[in-house]
């Protein structure tokens, strides 16, 4: 059975009978029985969770969790990669879609074939704002909300 803390999903001791999932060494991450890594986080003060997505690697799922956890809990968050907290993408609001979008962007930094995370952070100046350039070598899908399109259109 899964154990849940007040700050998100806790690590599991092993596979769960209900989901067929496999434990992960990363907070907020589990492996589906068909091999995909998934991430979700509890909203503070609520019982519901925000689905952050399904990912190729556990590191991608962990980075997604970190972006959401840092947004909700700030420097008190227990992160998988605390050394990268300063460079995590920030959601424009606490709306589910905005949190998920930032989480997806954070995960792309760990995509197989992407530049090493430290190199990518250095190239982006270690800033907290999302970057419009891709650190992955090929095509990718970026999900943004209509409010982000309006807000970012004058920045370029």
UniProtKB/TrEMBL annotation:
Residues 118-139 have a biased composition (Low complexity). It is found in: Nucleus. One of its GO terms (cellular component) is nucleus. Transmembrane segments: none annotated. GO terms for molecular function: DNA binding; DNA-binding transcription factor activity. Residues 144-156 have a biased composition (Polar residues). CDD domains: AP2 (cd00018). Residues 1-13 have a biased composition (Basic and acidic residues). Belongs to the AP2/ERF transcription factor family. ERF subfamily. This is AP2/ERF domain-containing protein.
């Amino acid at each position: 059975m899964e154990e849940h803390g007040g700050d998100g999903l806790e690590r599991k001791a092993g596979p769960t009978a209900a989901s067929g999932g496999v434990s992960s060494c990363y907070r907020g991450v589990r492996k589906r029985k068909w091999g995909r890594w998934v991430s979700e986080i509890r909203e503070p003060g609520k019982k519901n969770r925000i689905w952050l997505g399904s990912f190729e690697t556990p590191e991608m799922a962990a980075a997604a969790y970190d972006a959401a956890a840092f947004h909700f809990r700030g420097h008190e968050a227990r992160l998988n990669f605390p050394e990268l907290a300063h460079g995590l993408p920030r959601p424009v609001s606490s709306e589910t879609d905005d949190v998920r979008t930032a989480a997806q962007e954070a995960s792309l930094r760990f995509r197989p074939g992407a530049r090493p995370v430290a190199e990518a952070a250095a190239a982006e100046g270690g800033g907290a704002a999302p970057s419009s350039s891709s650190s992955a070598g090929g095509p990718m899908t970026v999900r943004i909300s209509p409010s982000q399109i309006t807000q970012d259109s004058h920045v370029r």
